[in-house]
Amino acid sequence: MNVMKSFTLKSLRRNKKRTVVTIIGVIISAAMITAVAGFFTSFLNLLQRDAIESSGNWHAVIKDVNAEDFDTVIYDTAVDQAVLGKDLGYSVLRTSENKYKQYIYLRQYTKSGFDRMSVRLVSGRLPTALNEVAISESIGKSAGIKYRIGDTLDLELGRRETLDGRVIADNQSLYYEMDDNGNQTIGERIVTESTRSFIVVGVIARPTFEYSWSAGCGAVGYLDETAFSPYDAADIYLTASKLDRSIFNTIPALAEKAGKTADDVEFNTNLLRDYGVVENDNLHEFLTGFALVLIVIIIIASVSLIYNAFAISVAERSKQLGLLSSVGATRRQKRNSVFFEGFFIGVIGIPLGILAGYGGMAVTLAAIAPLLKSVINTSSDVTLTLVVTPLSIVAAVVLSALTIFISAYIPARRASRITPIDAIRQTEEVRLTRKAVKTSRLTRKVFGFEADVALKNLKRSRKKYRATVFSLVVSLVLFLTVSTYASMAGTLSGATYDGYNYDIGVTYSNNMMDRADMNDRIAALDLVESHTETANVSGTVRLEAKQVSEYTRRFQQPIQDGLYDLGMTLASVDDDTFISYAQTVGADAEEFYDIEEPRGILINHAQDYYTEDGKYLKKLSGDVLNLREGDTLAFAAADGDDASAKTTELAVGAVTYERPMGTLIQSFYASTLVVTEAVFNAVTNDFTEDQTRSIQHAIYLSTGDDQRLERQLGELTQGTEEISIHNIRSAARAERNISVFLGVFVYGFIILISVICIANIFNTVSTNIALRRKEFAMLRSVGMTPKSFNRMIRFESIFYGLKGLLYGLPISVAIAFLLHNMQQSVLSTPFTLAWHSYAFAILMILVIVFATMLYATKTIKKENIINALKEDGF
Amino acid sequence: MELLRVENLCKTYGSGETAVHALDNVSFSVGKGEFVAVVGSSGSGKSTLLHIIGGVDCPTSGRVFVDGTNIYTLNESKLAIFRRRQVGLIYQFYNLIPVLDVEENITLPLLLDARCPDKAQLDELLGMLGLTDRRKHLPNQLSGGQQQRVSIGRALINSPALMLADEPTGNLDSKSSADIISLLRAFNKKFHQTLILITHDHDIALQADRIIGIEDGRIMKDEVIRR
Q1: At which of A218, A250, A267 does a domain end?
Q2: CA-to-CA distance for B76 and B62, rounded, in angstroms?
Q3: Angle of helix A462-496 relative to helix A728-771, nearest 10 degrees?
Q4: What is the torsion angle, in degrees rounded to the nearest 10, for the CA atoms of residue A356, residue A362, residue A366 and residue A367?
Q5: How far is B116 from chain A (nearest CA, A)?
Q6: Is the CB of B99 less than 8 angstroms away from the CB of A781?
Q7: For residues A722 and A512, is the Cβ–Cβ distance under 8 A?
Q8: Is the Cβ of A864 closer than 8 Å to some Cβ of chain B?
Q9: Contact assessment for residue B216 and residue B49, using Cβ atoms and an 8 Å cutoff
Q10: How many independent structural domains does chain B possess?
Q11: In this complex, do A783 and B82 lie within 8 Å of one another by their Cβ atoms?
Q12: Pairing of β B87-90 and β B162-166
C-alpha cells in the first residue's frame, strides 16, 4: 500500500465516529436503492406469475399444425420450449343442473403441458394414458354432477354450432333463443366428430381455458407425442427463446414455415404484457419512471450526506495534505486519496446496504402482501414475494457507487488544489471579520454571555453549516408535506363509501336487451349470496310546508308560498326482496300489489355533509318529510323541461329508515318510495319515450368473496358495453388499503431519508465540535463551568435548529397550501395546517440537533484541558 | 505569608514499564507577592507542574493548596470558578477565542462570571498593554506579541492572587519579550500578585526573586536570589 493510501486509512481510523456514520449513510442509501429496485422487480414478477396462473406459461400458440411439421416448429431457434395440445371439443353433460353449463370441454396436452398450462391438481392424479382425463372441479361445483375417480365418461365430442349452422367459437357462453311465447330455449347443438370413452383419474382446479361463463366445464387428457400419425394435427404452445418485441414477427414467420398462416398464431398477451413485451407499453414505462424518480431523490439525499463527509474530511486533512504536498505529493495523488476514501467506504457500505435492502424489502413485502392483494386483484395463490435478480443487484451497486463518486468528486478536486501554504495558514480564521461575527448587544443582555458566544460561533461557520441546514430543511419539508397530504387524504376518504349496503352493483344502460336473462345468469353464480333486482326513476313531489321536515326546509327554498317541490326516487325491487323488506319494515307485502290504488314504502332518511362558516364538514342525519302511513303524494316523473308533467297519486304504506339492498341514503332534498314491480310497471306504463329511457335498471349483489365474484361477472359480461360493474366493497377496501400501503412506503421512505439527514447533521455537528475542542478547553481553562458550557451548547443547538425551521417551515406551509388548492375541486374544506405534525417536526428538529450536540460534547466535557490545548489540529 | 503550597505532587503518564513520571514527589511553597522562575530542560515536567497548580490538569497524587484550599477536592464547577477568580494562566500559544474581540477576550473571566467589566480598570489595563487602539480587533488581526499581551490582559483582569505564565515569551522576538516581562513584573510589584513563570531564558530567570530548577520531575535546586 502506498503512503497516500495508508495516510487516508489512518485518518479514517482517527475519525472513527464520522467514518462509521458515513458508512451507515452509504448503507442506508444503498439499501434504499436496492429496496426500490427489488420492489420493482418483485412487483413485475408478481404480475408475471399471476398471468401464468391465469393463462399459462407460454408466449404464443400456433394452431392446428400438421404432425409432419412439428419438428419445424419445435426445433426452430426462435423457440425455447414447446408443448403439444389438442382440442377435442365439446360433449353434452346430460344431467347438468346449471342452465349455462351444459357441456364438458376436453383438451389434451403432452406430459410437460400440464405444468406449462398451469393445470392444478385438486385430487387424484393427472392423466398418463390416452384414455384418461382429469375433470374440472366446476363439474361438481357448478354443474352439480358428482363424478368419482375411476368413473367412465362416454363422450360424443364435437364442435358447437347454432341451430342454423353457424360455428360458435370456443368459450362463448351458452346460446339461448327466445321462442314465440317468450320462453328461452337452447339455440345451439353439437356436431359430433368422435365418440370416445375416458376414465376419470383426477379432479383439477378450473383450467386456464375454462372461464366462469363458459358453456363447457373443462377436462384435460393426455397426449402421447410419439403416437401421432402423419395425418394428425395439434396446437403447439411455445415459449420464445428471445423474449422481446421481435416475437411479433418471428412467430408468424415460423407459422408460415410450418404451413400455417399468421392468423393461426395467438399470443399470450396477458403474460407478454407483464414481461414488457407489448406493442405499446404504458404500465412498464410508468413503473420504470416511478422507480427512477425515487432513486433520484435517494441519490440527492445521500449525496448531500456523503459529500459533506468528504468535504469535512478534506478540510480536516488540509494541513496533512498540504504537508504531503510540500514534500512532493502530486495533484493526482492528493485527489486519489479522496477517491480512495470513497472506495474504502463503498466497499464496506454497499454490500451491507444491499443485504439490508433485500432483508428490509423481504420483511416489508411479507407484511404488506395481504393488503396489496385487495388492491391489485391477483389469483388467489399468487402472492408478492421478494425476487432477487443479478440485474437488480448490479443496478444497486452501480447506482450506489455513482452516489459516492458524485459526492467525492468536488472534495477530491479541492484536495488536489491544496498547496503547502494552506497547511501553514488557517484559511478560515484569516477570513473572519468583526462584521461577520457581530451580534446584537441585546442577545448578551437577554440570554447571557453563553448565548452570545453560541451565536457568534454559528455566524462564524456559516458556510460549513449551510449543507446541514439544507438537510434539515429537506427532511422537514419532506416530512411535513407527506403528513399534510396524508391528513388531507384522510378527510377525503372518510366520506366516500358511507351508506352502501351492497357489495357489487351491476347496472344496465337503457338499451340493454335481454336484461332478465342476464339477471338470471348473474343470480345463478355460486358466489352470489343474495341479490336485488331494481328499477328506479326520479321525479318530484309537490308538498306543503308542514309535510316537509325542519332539516329539509333549512336546505330547500319553497317554489312559492308554503309549497315545496322535492325530489323523489320511485324504486321497484323484485318480489322476493320486497316481501322480506316489507317484513322488516312491519308492513303487509300483499297490500302493495294493487295497481288501482298504488302504494309504496317511504324511506324518509337523509344524510348530508354540511359546511358552515368555513368550518369543518359536519354530518347531518334526519327525516326528509313529515309524512305518515296513509298520506298520499303526487309523483311526477321528470320529463325534460316539461313542468306540466302528468302526476300519479301514490299512497304511503309505511315510513321507515330501512333501505332494501342497493338503495342509497338520499340528501335532504329527496326521498325514496319503494314499490313492487307490478306497481312500478303500472306507473311507468304510460311514460313517454324519454321518460322510459330514464328508468335505471340494476342488480345488486352481496357476496362473501367480492373479488372472485367481480372477476366472474367480468368474464360473464365480457364485451357487453351496456353493463357496468361496481365493486363497492373492493373499492372501499382498496381505498383503505391504498392509504395504508402508501403510508408504509411513504413513511418508510421519509424515515430512511430522515435517517440520512440525521446522519448528515450528526457528522457536521460533531466534526464542528471536534474542531473546536481546543477552543472549548480554552473556555474551561479560564473558568467556564460545566453548567455554562451546557448552556452555550444548548443555545447553539437552538439557534441552529431555528435556522433550519426558518427556511423549512415557510416552504412546508407553502407546499401545504398548494396541495390544499389542488384538492379544492374534490371537496371544499377550509385551509388548515396539520398542527400536530408541525409541532412534532419542530420538536424533532430541535431534539435531533440538541441530542447530537450533547453526544458530540460528551467526550469533550470530560477531557483533560491540557490534552485538548496541546492538540495542534493536525 | 504563604499563598501556595504543593505537597508530594506526582504525575504519571501511562502505567507499568512504560510509565513516565512527569512529576515525582514535588513539594514546595510560595509566599504572597513572590516572583518565582521555574527553569528546566524540555520534558522536565515544569509545564505539567504549572498546569496542575493552575487547576487545568490533575495530579496522580499529592495536594495543592491555594490560599489554604486544597483545589483538587473541589468539584468541577467550583474548580472552574477557582480558575476564573483566583488564577491567571498565560500560555505559550495565547489560546484566544477567535470569535471574540480583544476587549471581550480580556474580560472573558468577568463575562463568565456575568459581571460587567469596570470601564476605568479596563481602559487602564488596555493602556498598560498597549492595546487601546486594538480593542475591537479579532485575534487573527493581531501580531503574535499583541495576542500574547491580550492573553496576559485576560490573566490580569480579575487581579488574581496567583499568576502562572508558561513560557510567555517563547514565541516572541527579544523586544517583545522584554516588554512582556517588564509588564508582568510591574503587575507583580504593583498589585502584590504572586507570579510563577516558566522560562528557558537565563536573563529572564535572573529577574525573579527565586529560581526553582526542575529535572526529571524533581526539584533539583531552589534558590532565593533576592528578598
Answers
A1: A267
A2: 18
A3: 170
A4: 20
A5: 11
A6: no
A7: yes
A8: yes
A9: no
A10: 1
A11: yes
A12: parallel
CA-nearest residue of chain A to B86? A783
Dist CA A89 CA A521 (whole Å):
24
Q: B141: helix, coil or strand?
A: helix
Is residue A710 situated within a structural domain? no
Q: Which residues span the domain enclosing A663? A: 504-703
Question: A781, A795, A869: which to substitute to probe chain B, counting the most B Cβ within 10 Å?
Answer: A781
ipTM of the modeled complex: 0.80
Report yes or no: A801 and A851 within 8 Å, Cβ to Cβ.
no
Beta strands in A35-187 (DSSP E): 60-66, 79-92, 103-109, 121-124, 132-136, 152-162, 176-178, 184-186
Q: Helical H runs in B7-75?
A: 46-54
- Count Cβ atoms below 10 Å from residue A815 Cβ, excluding itself: 16
- CATH code, domain with B75: 3.40.50.300
Closest CA relative to residue A570, chosen from A633, A521, A517, A621: A633
DSSP H or E stretch at residue A201: strand A188-204
What is the per-residue pLDDT for A347? 93
Which tens digit of pLDDT belongs to each residue from B36-84? 999 988 888 888 898 899 888 888 899 999 988 898 888 888 888 888 8
pLDDT tens-digit profile of B158-176? 888 899 998 888 777 788 7
Interface contact B109-A782, CB threshold 8 A: yes
Residue A847: inside a domain, yes or no?
Answer: yes
Q: Is residue A724 part of a domain?
A: no
Who's near A856: CB < 8 A, 6+ residues apart? A762, A765, A766, A769, A770
Residues 6+ positions from A732 with CB-CB distance below 8 Å: A496, A497, A500
Residues A240 and A98 in one domain: yes
Q: Are A245 and A251 in contact (CB under 8 A)?
A: no
Residue A717 lies in a domain: no
Contact check, Cβ <8 Å, B76/A453:
no
Q: Which of A688, A703, A718 is at the close of a domain?
A: A703
Q: Which amino acid is at A799?
A: F
User: In angstroms, rounded to a whole number, what is the distance separating the alpha carbons of residues A850 and A840?
Assistant: 15
Q: pLDDT tens digits, residue range A253-289?
A: 888 888 888 888 888 877 777 776 655 455 566 667 7
Q: Which residues of A touch B114 (CB under 8 A)?
A: 448-449
DSSP for residue A433: -
Q: Which residue of chain B has the CA closest to A867?
A: B57
Query: CA-CA distance, B78 to B96, in Å (whole number)?
Result: 23
Of A453, A775, A785, the CB nearest to B81: A785
d(CA A301, CA A782): 42
The pLDDT of residue A377: 58
Distance (Å, whole) CA A568 – CA A545: 16
Amino acid, res. A52: I
* CB atoms B51 and A786 under 8 Å: no
The residue among B110, B112, B143 with the most chain A CBs within 10 A of its CB, best to mutate, is: B112
Strands A265-267 and A563-573: unpaired
Binary contact (B98, A782; C-beta < 8 A): no
> What distance in Å separates residue B83's CA from the closest CA in chain A?
5
Q: A291 and A253 in one domain?
A: no
- Measured between CA atoms, the residue of chain A closest to residue B82 is A783
Give the pTM.
Answer: 0.61
Looking at chain B, which residue has its C-alpha nearest residue A448?
B114
B139, closest residue in chain A (CA to CA): A429
Q: Does A787 touch chain B (CB under 8 A)?
A: yes
Overall number of domains in chain A: 4
Exposure string for A579-615, b = 16+ CB within 10 A, e = fewer? eebbeebebebeebbeeeebbbbbbbbbebeeeeeee
B-chain residue closest to A774, CA distance: B95
A176-211 confidence digits (pLDDT tens): 776 777 677 788 888 888 888 899 999 888 888 887
Distance CA A864, CA B73 (A): 17
Residues of A in contact with B137 (CB under 8 A): 434
